[in-house]
Prior knowledge:
By secondary structure, the protein is of the alpha+beta class. The protein is built from 12 helices and 4 strands.
Amino acid sequence: xxxxxxxxxxxxxxVRVFENRQISEEEKRTILEAxxxxxxxxxxxxxxxLDITDQELKERLAESCDNQPFIARAPLVLVFCTDCxxxxxxxxxxxxxxxxxxxGDLMLAVTDTAIAAQNAVTAAxxxxxxxxxxxxxxxxxxxxxxxxxxxEYVFPSVMAVFGYPAAQQMSRRKPRRFELEDIVCENxxxxxxxxxxxxxxxxxxxxxxxxEWMKRFCSRKYDSDFSREMTRSxxxxxxxxxxCYE
Length: 246
């Protein structure tokens, strides 16, 4: 069954080249309000959205996020911060002495944050505005904390850039997704055997054998320097959430 919403979800793809065209304040507000309508644990909205309007800051973020110049050229840059601080402050304001946030609180808040970001991305696409998620915002913990003035218990888990797509981006084919049966398990998790894994990647290996393609992809992504830096950086953020276990 296809309706306008499911059609747009299927058509939406990452956009990294934008027209020289600004996003209006009304459009920005629509995108931000859509983010805030997202489902949220206990109606807490465990996130804070940073609207990056300073061009110098955009350029520094482009550099700190794996040197990607298109970030600085994007008309709209939003950093969705997982925020476990504001409710802690609210409890203390009421004279309470709550426990420090832990990793469970962090994971719940990261979920809130990601859902809000996806609402923003989906709303933007419905307006004809493209977007691209920037996972590199989780790297360079020390740098991002300084650039964004991030206090304890605040983690920049999602960054997205927005703009009107260039014609080339609109004509570019969306990367192929896995088949439904590769992703959905009924009732319980099923570990994939060797045959299932190889079948899962049929048509995705760009003319290479499964082993050749997997070796290149693993080197370029999973075992890359930026992936290792992301793991180190997120580990630094996690330290402040693990003190309750010491």
